[in-house]
Amino acid sequence: MSKGPAGNSSPVARARSRSSRVAPNLGANDWVLVLARQPDGKLLAGGRSGSLGTHNFALARFLPNGALDTSFGTAGKVTTDFAGRDDSIEALAILPDGRILAAGPSGTGPIGGPFKMALARYTKQGKPDPTFGVAGKTLLSFGQSSAATALLPGGKFLVGGGIAVSGGAANMDFAVLRFTANGKLDPAFGTAGRVTTDFAHKFDGVDDLRILANAKIVVSGQIDESHPGAGDGAFGLARYTPNGQIDSTFGAAGKVRTRFPGSVGSSVEAMEIQADGRIVVVGPVFPAFPAIGVSFGVARYLNSPAGQAAPALEKNFRQIRIER
Asked: Could you tell me where the beta strands, DSSP code E, fall in 8-156?
């Protein structure tokens, strides 16, 4: 998911050329998972490339007219392997100097997991940044997913995702981590550089992350899922102080849970912060199993210490379901 103003890069729906489509071949099984737009109008597409079970981080850059930018990487493309297993870029951020930060999961075992959090940083020419991690890469010894990034003043940055806890992959908590500019965990944030949040001892994961005007951090994602892919989860939000502590003035002990009436579950896909500070979250709503006839779901939350959803649809709105 590419981020809006609070997430450091402009949102892009798709890259288009004069023929209205572009389909670059990175030489394997290629998936685009996230897009970001540079200030000069060039487009970055991140995802994965390779064979099942051995995908690599993949990044391509396009000119404003949709043509591959051959000055980037090798003929417009760059791939990065971490441990010989499945790696995918799921979040991108463009630094003020043009360098590119990519984050996502890296597989450490058979197809389907387990995974660790992986980060890579590239120069604006698409080469590994030697000042970041080891040879431009950082692979953490923990984590299950990393799906959101946000830049901070001074070069530090945040990554949001999920961390598996005791009980296996079906028991995962929200996770927010802060890194120094060189790709090391920042010990001044949370506990040893990270903060985790559990909702109900089930499968919870951050899908979007924003930094508010007061420097607090708000994250959204799917929570309460009985196991990955079950579809019985809910919208979840949490807010943290700038130094990585749960903000107890938000919702109930720093957390908000939203379920849509008449549905069996829902999943968060994106979040935006309005100019007045209200939080808008969107994602699919599942009326039944299997997930056939999925609805659009939208929820908006007040910018108030309680952090609760607006009380009435006619005054603001609490939840909207758009049927197909």
From this structure: 29-37, 43-50, 56-62, 77-80, 91-94, 100-107, 115-122, 137-139, 145-151
Closest by CA position to 152, among listed 188, 124, 128, 117: 188
State the pTM of this model: 0.83
Smallest Cα–Cα separation from 92: which of 54, 44, 145? 44
* Cross-strand bridge partners of residue 48: 31, 57
Q: What is the pLDDT of residues 186-226, one digit of tens each?
A: 999 999 999 999 998 888 999 999 999 999 999 999 998 88
Three-state SS for 142?
Answer: coil
Q: How far apart are CA 181 and CA 152, in angstroms?
A: 9
Is residue 118 within 8 A of residue 105, CB to CB? The reply is yes
Q: How many residues are given for the chain?
A: 324
* Measured distance CA(231)–CA(268) in Å, rounded: 11
Query: CA-to-CA distance for 37 and 43, rounded, in angstroms?
Result: 5
- Residue 99, Cβ density class (10 Å: 0-12 exposed, 13-18 middle, ≥19 buried): middle
The residues, any chain, with a CB within 8 Å of residue 272's CB and separated by 6 or more, are 4, 279, 280
User: What's the number of CA atoms in the CB half-sphere (13 Å) around residue 312?
Assistant: 2
For 120-179, write each residue's pLDDT tens digit.
999 999 999 999 999 999 998 777 777 899 999 999 999 999 988 775 556 889 999 999
